[in-house]
Specification:
264 residues, alpha/beta, 2-enoyl-CoA Hydratase, Chain A, domain 1, 7-stranded mixed beta sheet, 3-stranded mixed beta sheet, 13 helices, 10 strands
Length: 264
């Protein structure tokens, strides 16, 4: 029997079956994004799932062309023009990372296609990340003219080391799923056709395990992330402040015009 949790967004839906809460980005056939409402909802969903006794594990996946392309252009443009919007998104981005860290239930992500922005934050903040070999992992913040602030400072150096984190976050180079697994940014790589089955199998194994043993192990390991929290706060503030500056306007214009940015 499948249950659902109502969310006030079309960016994703939540289905619960056999102890697994499936967060499913969509819609099918298109590239998922997070608009203003979706960004707020994905930040707030984790405590709701953590509080449910019928949920033992969370599996984040997508039925779209890619995992998630991050913030919708409408939300990005709103941040350029509105201090209130920048503050709102900053609070939501902080809540997203903190709520995933504090969620006692283990989280698995199944990453295919492009994973960018808030979608990439969800993908990599998961406790176990399974990625298709031909996936495209892109942290494009500096190319947009803003600091890499929505999750990267808290997790990338721990996953793949400082040298690789700096290389990819400063240059915005795209990582294939294969390369992401090679440097330790994700847990496991698999063929695209096997991705969903592999991620579901891992979620099922976690759901069959000891709630307390798995939960306490996750909470203990996440103290490494809590120790990195000041770096995350600094990067997030730098990112959102930058949306009020000229480089961000040029970065967004270049993205829309499909050209290289010309920063001052």
């Amino acid at each position: 029997m499948t249950d659902t949790i109502a969310v006030n967004t079309s960016n994703f839906r939540v289905e619960i079956a056999d102890g697994i809460a499936h967060i499913i980005f969509g819609p099918a056939g298109s590239m998922p994004v997070t608009d203003a409402q979706g960004h707020a909802e994905i930040a707030a969903i984790w405590p709701k799932l953590d509080a449910r006794s019928d949920v033992r594990v969370v599996l984040v996946r997508s039925e779209g062309k890619g995992f998630c392309a991050g913030g919708a252009m409408s939300m990005v443009e709103e941040m350029l023009d509105s201090e209130a919007a920048r503050h709102r998104v900053m609070v939501e981005a902080r809540d997203l990372v903190r709520n995933m860290i504090e969620c006692v239930k283990p989280i698995v992500s199944a990453i295919h296609g492009a994973a960018v922005g808030a979608g990439l934050a969800v993908a990599l903040m998961a406790d176990i990340s399974v990625v298709a070999r031909n996936a495209k992992i892109i942290d494009g913040h500096t190319k947009l003219g803003v600091a890499a602030g929505d999750h990267a400072a808290v997790i990338w150096p721990l996953l793949c080391g400082m040298a690789k984190a700096k290389y990819y976050l400063l240059l915005c180079d795209t990582l294939s799923g294969e390369e992401a697994e090679r440097i330790g940014l994700v847990s496991m790589v698999t063929e695209a056709e096997d991705l969903q089955a592999q991620a579901l199998s891992i979620a099922q194994r976690l759901a069959a395990g000891s709630r307390t043993a798995i939960g306490h192990t996750k909470r203990s390991l996440n103290h490494w992330l809590r120790a990195a929290w000041p770096a995350f706060e600094a990067s997030l503030l730098a990112e959102l402040n930058a949306f009020g500056e000229a480089d961000a306007r040029e970065g967004v214009a270049a993205l829309k015009e499909k050209r290289a940015p010309r920063f001052g």
